[in-house]
Amino acid sequence: MSDLIRIGDADFRFAALFIYERFGIRLTDEKRILVAGRLSKRLRALGIASFSEYFELVRNDGTGKEVVELLNLITTNHSFFFREADHFEFLSKVILPRAKARLSRGNYAFRIWSAGCAAGEEAYTIAMLVREYFGTETDRLDIGILATDISMAALASAARGVYDEAKLHEMPPAYRSRYMEETGDRKYAVAKEIKGMVLFKKLNLMSERLPLKHGFDIIFCRNVMIYFDTASREHLVNSLYSVTKSGGNLFIGHSESLRRETCPFEYLSPAIYSRGEAK
Ligand SMILES: C[S@@+](CC[C@H](N)C(=O)[O-])C[C@H]1O[C@@H](n2cnc3c(N)ncnc32)[C@H](O)[C@@H]1O
């Protein structure tokens, strides 16, 4: 613990405001030790002795690179395959059959978005379920899976697609044998045909307007809003609504909730919402 560089009141206040204004992430006072712990290593790597000096650098960094480093250290990219499995059951049993009917009528683009995808576990789980459901038809159908995150480090891991065995503990054995390849050292790589189904991109969910062209049938935005305060959460939910197709669904984490009075989505079942009903 002697390695920890102390963060003073003014510096912590600056960090909290800076992170909130740019990314909607609320750093409460209880996070002070955590922030100091995570950033101390970075300060040492840069040969910087104090947080005031470090934030001076962040403030004046025209390239924006240090801001990204800072954010990568602060966000938690914890995730695992088949997390909150009932959502995936709903996907396989309700949503994919509905999508199949639309896709078979032709001229339909079925779009799924994993918003706040961390290292890709959620998006690859979705891809596995889609391939499992549509089988050899998958590549002929117009199905797109977009996965975005703000953390470049998380996106780099997602693109690598190699995971510790611990990330697979909820994955049914049949999926593990079909879609994961053991690479040694208790690590597993996502099969090529699954990797090829997901497009990873950097995106800040707190952007004024989401830079997305298409509407989505399904949005997974799970365990992301835990970082946000009410105002940021409401801004995000409205943004998500604006890019959800009518009849589409939003999944949030089971430990998260949306305020009924202000939420434009309709509640469907725990942590599942819908945007009106498509005919
Ligand atoms: C705990 S992970 C959740 C991963 C996955 N959705 C799940 O439920 O397992 C939260 C992710 O949200 C991302 N995140 C936090 N704030 C964000 C923002 N403003 N824009 C985009 N992604 C953000 C973090 O980088 C992190 O990877």
Give a structural overview.
This protein has 279 residues and is of the alpha/beta class. It folds into 2 domains: 9-74, Chemotaxis receptor methyltransferase CheR, N-terminal domain (Chemotaxis Receptor Methyltransferase Cher, domain 1); 85-274, Vaccinia Virus protein VP39 (Rossmann fold, 3-Layer(aba) Sandwich), CATH 3.40.50.150. The protein is 42% helix and 19% strand. It is built from 10 helices and 10 strands. The protein has helices at residues 9-23, 32-46, 51-60, 65-74, 85-104, 121-134, 152-160, 173-179, 192-195, 230-242; strands at residues 110-115, 143-149, 162-164, 180-184, 187-190, 198-202, 216-221, 244-252, 266-269, 272-274. The strands form 2 sheets. Strands 6-2-1-7-8-10-9 form a 7-stranded mixed β-sheet. A hairpin with a 2-residue loop joins strand 9 (266-269) and strand 10 (272-274). Helix 5 (85-104) packs across helix 6. The mean pLDDT is 92. It binds S-adenosylmethionine. The site of S-adenosylmethionine has 25 residues, from loops.
